[in-house]
Amino acid sequence: MALLLRLLCLCSALAVAMAARPPSVSIGALFTFDSVIGSSAATAIQLAVDDINRDATVLRGTNLTVLMQDTMCSGFVGTIQALELMEKQVVAVVGPQSSGIAHVVSHVATELRVPLVSFAATDPALASAQYPFFVRAAHDDSFQMAAVASVVANFGWREVTAVYVDTDYGRGGVDALGDALEAARARITCKAAFPPGAGRAALSDVLVRANMMESRVFVVHASPDSGLDVFAAAQGLNMMGAGYVWIATEWLAAAIDSGSGGSARRTGLVQGVVTLRQYTPESDAKSSLQARTRRMNAYGLFAYDAVWATARAIDAFLGDGGNISFSADPNIRDANGSALRLSSLRVFDQGDLLLRKVMLADFTGATGRVRFDLDGGGGMALADPAYEILNVGGTGVRRVGYWSNATRGLSVRVPPISRQQEQEPQNATTQTQKLYSVIWPGDTTSPPRGWVFPNNGRPLRIGVPYRTTYTQFVSRDPSGGPDGVSGYCVDVFKAAVALLPYPVPVSFVLFGDGVKNPSYSELVQRVADGGFDAAVGDISIVTNRTRVVDFTQPYVESGLVIVSPVKARSSNEWAFLKPFTPGMWAITGAFFLFVGAVVWILEHRFNPEFRGSPRNQIVTIFWFSFSTMFFAHRENTVSTLGRFVLLIWLFVVLIINSSYTASLTSILTVQQLSTGIQGLDSLLSSNQPIGYQVGSFARSYLMDELGVPASRLRELAITDYAGSLQRGPANGGVAAIVDELPYVELFLSTSCQFRTVGQEFTKSGWGFAFQRDSPLAVDLSTAILTLSENGDLQRIHDKWLSPGTCDAQSTDGVGADRLNLSSFWGLFLICGVACFVALLVYLARILCQFCDYHHDQGLPPERSLRRPARLGSIRDLMSFVDMREAEVKRAIRSRSGERRLDRSMGASSLSEEGPSSSLSRPSSSMSPV
C-alpha cells in the first residue's frame, strides 16, 4: 500500500512538472534576408531550430519556433520589424544583423526585457552598459581591429588609409582601428568614408582623394554586399598593382566563403588582399553543418550557435520551474488617434532570469567553445576571440597566420582555445614566426613600402632658420635664388632628397625676423603643431625635441664645448726655474752630488783621474756630477760597478733633461688661460657669467641639467663672442662661452686669441626634424648615410665651411702644470738602489782586501804562525782605502812571497836540529819516577 502511494505521488509530481513546461516557445530572428550574411544566417538558424527540436534532451517536450523578420538593410524598417516581432511575445531575439539597427532595437529590448543574442552586430559601442540586454554571440570589431593593427605593425607601416561605409558599423570599426593603431605607434592619416549603397562613381571619387595621400596601406571596412564594389573601383583606378597594400576586415572572408559575386569576381578583384576571418576550430559539428549547406560563412556558424545558446538558456530557465508570462508596460501607451498599437507590446516578466541563463552558457558548438564573458564596457560577448589571417591568391585563400586575444599578437600557431590544441607540440620555428609569406598585389612577395610621396599638389612646407650670424650654415639666400634659402644644411638636405626614389616637392619658408637668430625650440614646436611639415637647418637633436618630432640620422656630429680667452704666458729672468718645483730641484741636485760621490768611491782606487789632492778630488766629484747633465764628463769609468751606476744615472738624466726641455718650451710658448677656467668642473664651481648663443639649447641644458642659475647666463650673438670674452667678467663680459662644436670651430678659425678648454660634455648631432611617424625621416636617414659613405657630405662641408686663418692648436698645454717629484720618484728610487748595491759590493770587497793586507803587515813574520792578526785602526783603514788598487795587490803578493820563504826557512832549521832533540827526549822520558 505504501509503495502504491509513493508511485501515485511520483506520477503526480511528473504530471505537474510536465504541465509546467509550455508546449512551445517562440524566439525571434532579425536580419536582412537578401544579404550575404542574412542568407547564410537564415539557413543556419533554421537548421539549429530543427536540430534542437529533434534532440529530446534539450527542451524536453517543448517545441521551439522561430519568427524571422526581414530588416531589409534599413534602420527604419528594421525598427518597425522589431516592434512587430515584440508584439508576438517572443522570449528572445537572435539578431539583429546590423549594428545600426542593434542600437535602436536594444532600447526596445531593454524596455521589454527581452534578451538580444546578436551574431553579426560588431560595433564596439554596443558593449556599453547602456545596452544591458544585448549579448554578442560573435567577436566585436575592437578585437578585429587589434588584429589589423598587429598586421600593420608587423610590416613596419606607420600610416593607414581607412576606407569604410559611413554607418554605425563602419564608424565604430574605424574608431576601434584608430585606437589599436595608436597603441602600435601608427595612425590613420586619411578616413575615406562612402555612403551606404554608393555607386561606382562615388566610390571612385573617394578612392581618388585617398590615393592623393602618402599612405599606400588601405584598410577596407565594409559589408560583404558592397565591399567588392570598392575593389572594383580600385581596380579601375589601377590601385591594385605593386606598391599597394589592401587589408579587408572579415566581411571579405564572409563573401568568399558564401560564394557571393561569382568565382571570377571574387578571385579577380582581390588578388593579393589580406583579410581576416573569425577563427572557429575544426570539429565534427562544424563539418556536419557545412556539409548540409553550400553557403556557410563564419556569421552563419555563429548564428547557429546563438540559437543553441538561447535554447539551452530556455531549457535551464524552464528546468528551474520558471514560467513564461508577459505583462503590460505602464510606460507604453498609444497616443490619441495613433494606429501604431504600442500598447500591444508586452514586457517579458522573466526576462532578467533568462538573460542570466544565457550568460551562463558554456558548451561546445559549431564555432568551438561557447562561453560569454563581461567585456570592457560591461556588456556580454564571446570569450577567447581569435582570427585567421588570410591571403587571397589564385582561385582561393591561403591562411598565413593567426591572431588571438590571449597573446595580443600574430603567430603561425593555432590559437590554444581547446585543451587538445594546448597540448599540441610546436617546434622552435613556429613558436617565433609571426606570419607565413604573403603574396601582395602585383604578385610580389616583398612587403611594399606602404607609402609614397603624396600626389595632392601641395609641396612640403619646410621651415628654415633665418640666421643672422654664420649664415654659411643656413639663412636667406643673398643672391635671391629660386629656393630663397642657402647654406650648408640646405645643400645637405637637397642632396639627400635627390637620392630618394620618388620626387619630393618642397617649399622653403624662413623662420625668424632677420634681426637675431630664431629660437630653434620654437621652430621644432611649429613642426610638431603642424605649422611646418619639416624643419631643415642646424637643429640639434636633444631629448626634449625628440619627444615631439622625429629626427633623421645626424649629418653633423656636435656637442657643447667651453670657449675661454687665452694670453701668452709672461716670462722673466727666472723662467728657466719654472719647469721644476723647488722640491724637484732639491732632490735632483742632491742626487747629482750623491751619484758623483758614489762614482768617485767606486773609481778612486782604480782610476787615476779620480785621484790627487783632496782639493782636486772634491772638484772632480762636483765636476763629474753636474757634467753628466749634458753628457759632457771627460772622466772615464774603468770599474765594473762604476760603469753600472753611471749607466743607470745617465738614463735618469736623459729622462730629466727631456722633461725639463718639454716643460720649459711649453711654459715659454704655450698660451695660458686668462680666466682660470680649465673645464666643466671649474666652470660650474665658479660664480662668473657664462655666455651662450641666441636660440641655442645650451641655456636650458645649463639650467636644467647642470643647475646653473639663470643669473649667470648671458644671451649673446656670435658676433659678440670676441668682445664679451675680451672684456671679461670685471668689465661686463663673460668668463667663458658654452656653444656647440661646429659654431665654435668656425669662430676659433678666425679668432686666434681664444681656445676651447676641457672636453665636450654632451654628445649629439644636427638632423632634420619631421612630424611624428613621418616616413620621410626614415628614407632621408638612409640617404644621409649614403652621402656620408660616398664622400658627398664632406665635399659639401668643404664648400661652405672652409678653415680660417688660425692654425689648429691643441689646448692640452694651456696652463701647463710644473713638474714635481711624484712624476720621477720611481727613477730616483731605481738609481738610489743601484748606488747602494754597488757601494755594498765595493765595501765588502775592500774589507776582504783590508783583512788580508793588515794580516800580512801588522805582525812580524816569526809570530805570524803563532797568533792571528788583529784589526787595524780606522786610520789604517782610511789609509788603506786611499791606496791604489795596484799597490794593494802588489803588497799582498810580496808579503805572500815572504811568508812562503819564511815558512820554508823554518822547516829547514827544524830538520837540522831534529837528531839531537830526538835523542834528548828519550833520556828525559827515561828518568826515574
UniProtKB/TrEMBL annotation:
Location of the protein in the cell: Membrane
Disulfide-bonded cysteines: 752-806
Keyword Transmembrane: yes
Domain of life where this protein originates: Eukaryota
Domain named Ionotropic glutamate receptor C-terminal: residues: 459-803
Annotated region described as Disordered, given as residue ranges: 896-929
Membrane topology: Multi-pass membrane protein
InterPro entries, per the entry: ANF_lig-bd_rcpt (IPR001828), GABAb_receptor_plant_PBP1 (IPR044440), Glu/Gly-bd (IPR019594), Ionotropic_Glu_rcpt (IPR015683), Iontro_rcpt_C (IPR001320), Iontropic_Glu_rcpt_pln (IPR017103), Peripla_BP_I (IPR028082)
Segments crossing the lipid bilayer: 583-602, 614-632, 644-670, 824-844
This protein's GO CC annotations: membrane
Biased composition (Low complexity): 908-929
Gene3D superfamilies membership: 1.10.287.70, 3.40.50.2300, Periplasmic binding protein-like II (3.40.190.10)
Annotated CDD domains: GluR_Plant, PBP1_GABAb_receptor_plant
Function (record text): Glutamate-gated receptor that probably acts as non-selective cation channel.
Family: Belongs to the glutamate-gated ion channel (TC 1.A.10.1) family.
Official protein name in the record: Glutamate receptor
Organism: Urochloa decumbens
